[in-house]
Amino acid sequence: MEKLLLLAMNGLIWGLIIALIALGLAIIFGLLDIINLAHGDFFMVGTVLAWATLQSTGSFWLAFLVAPLIGFILGALIQRVVIQPIHNVAALSIVATFGLSLILQESVRISFGPTPRRILPPIQGTVHLFGIDYELYRMFAAVVALAALIGFFIFLHHTRLGTWMRAVRHDRDTAIAMGIPAHRVYVLTFAIGFALAAVGGVVAAPITTVDFRGGVDILPFCFMAVIIGGLGNLPGTAAAAILLSFLEGVISSVADPTVARISSLVLMSAVLLIRPQGLFKGLTR
Amino acid sequence: MTSAGAIERVLLAALAAFLISVPWSIPALINSFWVSVIAEILIWSLFAASVNLLFGYVGLLSFGQALYFGFGMYGVAVGISDLGLSFWPAFGLGIVAAMAMALVTGIFAVRLTWHYFAIITVVFSLIFYFLALTNKWLTGGDDGINFTLPATFSLGGSSLSFTDPTFQYFFILATVALCFWLMHRLIGSPLGKAFLAIRDNDVRASLIGLNVYLLRLIAFVMAGFLAGVAGALFAFFGRYASASYMFYHVSGEAVVWAIVGGAGTLLGPLVGTAIFIVVREIVSTHWEHHALIVGVVAILVVIFAPKGIVGLWHDWLTRLTERGAEPAVETKLRTEP
Q1: Has residue A127 been placed in a domain?
Q2: How far apart are CA B33 and CA B244, in angstroms?
Q3: Which of B256, B292, B300, B334 should we substitute to test contact with A (largest number of A Cβ atoms within 10 Å)?
């Protein structure tokens, strides 16, 4: 019972972090029509930036500023240099982002090194919760991830830039006709997508390991969240990420983690075949 | 007009002559290690061709072909080490296993198109990748299965097997060439034309009476056949099978090879595969970060030659041979801001 609770809690918190990363993937997918195979590596870059910030300044907290900023700049740069010239052709975008993924992984392997490292949680100690001792940092991570999620949705619905993003996604040609600079919105979207993944990386860095292959496992999971939540359905994506991760946590308390992963993949195939609009179609607007 | 065709025929003959001469010319020019590199290129180009058949000729981008490659590998490895089969039955088992798997997954997968198709194929391959990792009793997991190779032909006391590198090379060359020839015949056949019709416009294809679902399924099983042959050959070549070859990165590499070489061209996958593997072999002996170059090349080709290297070559050749004829409008004007 205690194991179940612990793994369920871990799953829930990991789900909040995945939701952040998957949202980045979803806005890039929804707005630019790009299947971004490098998205897991954007997350990985976030974990490495957290480690680098801690090493050079001695402060982990600074990473919450540095990582999204560098992520944003890198994202904007990548959109201009790599994504824009291929005119959002889905097939080409797969090749381009696959190449990007290799470049990011190898650059990190050169600069950071091939051996995985760990970051000690900056908040030590445990809290007593529902009869188990739970790590304080994970609670903190949940709060940060939740705050970032809420912040993103506020940005999307209550700022001019957010409205532009939704407008371009809804009807690109009309948006351009109304004077919205669609190209700048594309750059911005890609940059925000990268920044969200980088924040996810910083939050997750003390929980997981910092490794140049850290994104490889994250990527399929994010795609699962995007598909099960429904393409373009952002709240659905976030909900699916949390739900999936929670379920995997619960299943892995009784079975092998791989079995948990296989069950969510099977669930995903079923959703793709039966409800390709996602599980939550009709529940949200 | 005809001179473009003539140039290509000469090049094709040169390629064939080169490939046949490899076991003697390469050891003389470089060293015998490169013979096995070229054999490996041939095998992987068949794998890339299976992506190309689906994407270049039917318009379905599969990101899960590693699944059928893996089944081809495991069919051979399990057949030899667990069932005690000899060479040919094991080869057959690998191909049948890959095609059966392609049929079963294809029944579901080809109901979808575009993004959804790409994603469901990768999901199917991930499911079986994780299954292969957990069921170590059958697959050996990440460590894989090693086996000793039975003879290919044995007549009386003498036998021919892959232990003879020259025989191994020619067996691979003959099998791969046969598969490419079959694909060439397929593209020229009415079935191939139907594939192209679906690629260009599936709604119109269905309106002229083509059964789009069935044709896509046929193409999917055919692609499974190509991937399965490649996997089986690779198992014979390496004398082992491993779950790591079923991971989505392997599928991704094949997609990159096919598109960089030129999707929708017969030899594009061979060109793409050759470039990447040659670069890998040359660079990796000096510098361990060869993946960086692979990434940069992939991006550069996609930006500057979106039709792939063979596509670029075709454009260049037609422009060269048709010079003096009417100046054709080369590219459509893009009106995007």
Answers
A1: no
A2: 24
A3: B292
Tell whether B118 is within 8 A of chain A (Cβ): yes
Residue B331 lies in a domain: no
CATH of the domain at A190: 1.10.3470
Contact B56, B111 (CB under 8 A): no
DSSP B250: H
**Whole-angstrom Cα distance, residue A50 to residue A201?**
8
Least Cα separation, residue A90 to chain B (angstroms): 8
User: Are A83 and A93 within 8 A, CB to CB?
Assistant: yes
- Per-residue pLDDT tens, chain A, 285 aa: give them: 777 888 888 888 889 999 999 999 998 888 888 888 899 999 999 999 999 999 898 888 998 999 999 999 999 999 999 988 887 677 788 889 989 999 999 999 988 888 888 888 888 877 777 777 778 888 888 899 999 999 999 998 999 888 898 888 888 888 888 888 888 888 999 999 999 999 999 999 888 888 888 888 888 888 888 888 887 788 888 888 888 888 888 888 787 878 888 888 888 888 888 877 777 765 544
Instruction: Specify the amino acid at residue B244.
Output: S
Asked if B261 and B272 count as a contact pair (C-beta separation under 8 A), the reply is yes
Report yes or no: A108 and A212 within 8 Å, Cβ to Cβ: yes
For residue A125, being part of any structural domain is answered with no
Q: How many beta carbons lie within 10 A of that of residue B278, not counting itself?
A: 14
Q: Does A267 touch chain B (CB under 8 A)?
A: no
What is the distance between the alpha carbons of residues B51 and B54, in angstroms, rounded to a whole number? 5
Tokens of B166: 């020259």
Q: How far apart are the first and last CA of chain B?
A: 37
User: Which of A35, A93, A102, A180 is the mutation pick for testing B, counting most B CBs within 10 A?
Assistant: A102
Q: Which domain holds residue B202?
A: 28-153+161-246
- Residue pairs between chains A and B whose CB atoms are closer than 8 Å: 119
Interface contact B134-A256, CB threshold 8 A: yes
In this structure, is residue B118 part of a structural domain? yes
B131 CB near a chain A CB, below 8 Å?
yes
Chain B residues near residue A87 by CB distance under 8 angstroms:
334, 336
Kindly determine whether residue A106 and residue B61, on different chains, have CB atoms separated by under 8 Å.
Answer: no
Q: What is the CA radius of gyration of chain B?
A: 21
Number of domains within chain B: 1
- The structure's pTM equals 0.85
Query: Does the distance separating the beta carbons of B108 and A273 come in below 8 Å?
Result: yes
Whether residue A198 contacts residue A218, with contact meaning beta carbons closer than 8 Å, is answered with no
What number is the ipTM of this complex?
Answer: 0.83
Q: Which two tokens stand for residue B249?
A: 């990165």
- Closest chain B residue to A96 measured between Cα atoms? B299
Q: Count how many residues are written for chain B.
A: 337
